[in-house]
Amino acid sequence: DAAKVFDFDKSGGCAAVDQDDVKELVAFARGYNDSEFRYLNETRGRWRLGDSPHSVPVVVQARNNSYAIDPTYRAFLTGLAQAEADGDVPPIVLVAANDGMLHAFSLENFASTSDTEEGEELWAWIPGYVLHREHDAAWAGRLHDLLLYGRTFLFDGSPVVEDVWIDLDGDGLKSCDSVPSDCEWRRVVVVQQGKGGPVTLALDITDTDAPTFLWEQTDETDTNAVGFTTGRPVVGNVYDTSATDAIDRWVAFWGSGRAVPVSTSTGNYEGHEANIYMWALGDTDFATSHRAYQAPSSSADYARGDNYHPESSYGSSLQQDSDAHGHYENAYISAALTVVDVDSDGDVDTLYFPVTTTYKPTDEGGSGPGDVADPGSTWMYKACIDTDDPGVLTWVEFYDPVDDGGVTDGSGTAARPEVYYAATTSWLADGSLGVYWGTGTPYSRLDSSPGYFFAMKDSAPGLCDDDYMTEMTDCGTSGVVTLDDGEGLTGDPVVYAGVVYFSTWVPESDRCDGGEGRVYGLAYEDCSQGLDTDGDGTVNTTDDLYVAHEDSYISGITVTDKGTLFYGISGADTEGGSDPVGTINASTDPFLGTETMAWMEVF
To answer: Rounded to whole angstroms, how far apart are CA atoms 464 and 31?
Structure first.
């Protein structure tokens, strides 16, 4: 009987499922030593913290206010710095884990106590969705799945922390009198379930020791539309002129996530939609309400998502919703959205993102919709925000790898390899916007087809009446850099000081070998050498395009404001002197990047 599954205390019988079973689940979640993994016949023991294979931790601490233009925001940053110095708002690190929790750990001892808090957990937050016994997305992870079966994916998205302004009193004016109690500037974290499920969670962490719930969101109108939330949310300001009085609204953006493979069923692929969701981080009452852009007329509480499809000419075959919502299906957005403030006025104007079909198109030798393929085929899109109606985006196909780039699978057959990771952008000397992305997906690491890295220009990034795309002709072949067979990106590319960096992995011909991890550094306008690989102090044609690590997997790249690149290396022998974290110092002028400098260094 299904009800017996929830007899967590094993008292026996359907009728025995009661509050004691709830207590058992709570004890298990809190890490009680004697709690059991029911079907494993093993106790939990000392192991409480779940694994975080995909969640990237984020540090939350006071920030320098020297470059803040708005006086109320400077007051907010000054107030946070003072509260941190007084020990009232401790600096923390946040990470999601597959025990179903977002964890907050203290970075240092509190100034207000004599205790040792450094490294201790201050709090953990479980999304309500993870606690639900049943929900429509049957594939999504729930806390009791962990109790019953042991390790599973529950919550491993990467938290994103941003400072946002919420007009609490509705007067349209920013104010900040006391931090954190009386200030319209707030610090928030937005995090998703990742491979655990479809949920996006937002918390107010202005007081890092006392988080406040804002909202949880998934597509309640069509639960089949959303999959693994494998990208990460992006927070940006939207200038909203749809009402009588224009207002800045800080909004979380995210894509519908990666399509979910469930056994041999094709339903999850066919029902998946390439939606973009926008959810405001506050409205008249920051703690409880929200502005749901793209909401259906029947409900102002659920965002339906803005939707399109690269092969929309298939028409009704891509609109198979039994509830007649009319959204294109058979596609998904696995990556984080790239948002750009084109005119530098402080609000988001344009988004770039990959859209992937859940089938192989006919021009690639496939059968089109209804014939599921995993991985699918990817186009790059951009979308523009209309401030008069922010919830209705204008979509345009930015780049088609087959029609625009002549990309093949290595044997001459047209191909659009899956793009799993986000694009990155950078302004170029001619005033156009460089857009960079590459192929590769963790769902297919053993493919022998070549990988590709793309470098394109957008001559009018603020417009979506056309794509305005041109190739960077000096990069590879018409902006397409061909990688090795089986090579694919392992993280988002990043541009720093005139160089675009990205990590890849190349499988060995013998699948039992570890493969090769690589860190590329390409000049962002012509894709020439960007790394000093031979150590002679200069970057020139004698250098390689990448640094290689044998029998290793590179996890992705982070760049500090001083120009140091950090990246994780798997398989490191720490006892033998191998470092699990690689470092590279950028060889280009750091003043072209993000290094902090004073005005006297410039003028």
So the answer is: 51
